[in-house]
Design a protein that fits this description.
- By secondary structure, this protein is mostly helical.
- The protein contains six helices and two strands, in the order αβαααβαα.
- Strands 1-2 form a two-stranded parallel sheet.
- The two termini are 48 Å apart.
């Protein structure tokens, strides 16, 4: 009876040991290759270029006014002071407009980054649940949180492929499982 209890105890210990499935991804690589990141970056660049062009045009018009003022020697001292004040106020307004544009760009850029991070985290959560992972760790060139791993634990390419398959779809949750299975099957086929 004691042997039976000992064997049963050992079996229960082994059965209760949770086999954790762990993998990691290179966050820098995902952000660089994810289509959502590329699109957001292109949108921010286009918006920045538009704002820069608009501000350049306004500064060009301002410079023309300054040159016209400097070339106009017929103004009285009072009129000259008034015009200088007017130009200084216009310059301040242009500087304020530029600062506001920069702040707006930073805010919108931060919002896009947060949205991308949320999308990736949500995708990774769903992916981990579908694939049975207990942990998916994130590493980057700066943090180097994963110093060593066995071959096959880096699922960065698999995640990038699955993310890009799912990018822009309405049925993201449904597609996540399909893409994860599809991508894994493709990798398994190529390994065999």
């Amino acid at each position: 009876m004691k042997k039976f209890i000992a064997i049963l105890s050992i079996l229960l210990v082994f059965a209760s040991c949770d086999q954790s499935k762990i993998a990691y991804v290179n966050v820098d690589e995902i952000l660089k290759e994810y289509e959502g990141s590329k699109k957001a970056e292109a949108e921010m660049k286009a918006q920045s270029d538009r704002m820069r062009a608009e501000l350049d045009q306004l500064y060009g018009q301002f410079q023309q006014k300054v040159q016209a003022f400097q070339q106009n020697t017929s103004l009285s001292a009072t009129a000259k002071k008034e015009k200088e004040q007017e130009l200084m106020m216009e310059q301040q307004q242009l500087q304020q407009r530029q600062q506001m544009a920069q702040q707006q760009m930073q805010t919108e850029g931060q919002q896009k980054i947060e949205k991308i991070n949320e999308d990736i985290e949500s995708f990774l959560t769903e992916y981990a649940e579908n694939k049975g992972f207990s942990f998916i760790l994130g590493t980057s060139d700066q943090t180097k949180t994963v110093m060593y791993s066995k071959d096959g634990l880096d699922i960065t390419e698999e995640i990038i492929d699955a993310l890009n398959v799912n990018y822009g779809g309405d049925d993201t949750k449904e597609k996540i499982g399909d893409a994860a299975v599809e991508t894994t099957e493709q990798k398994t086929d190529s390994v065999n």
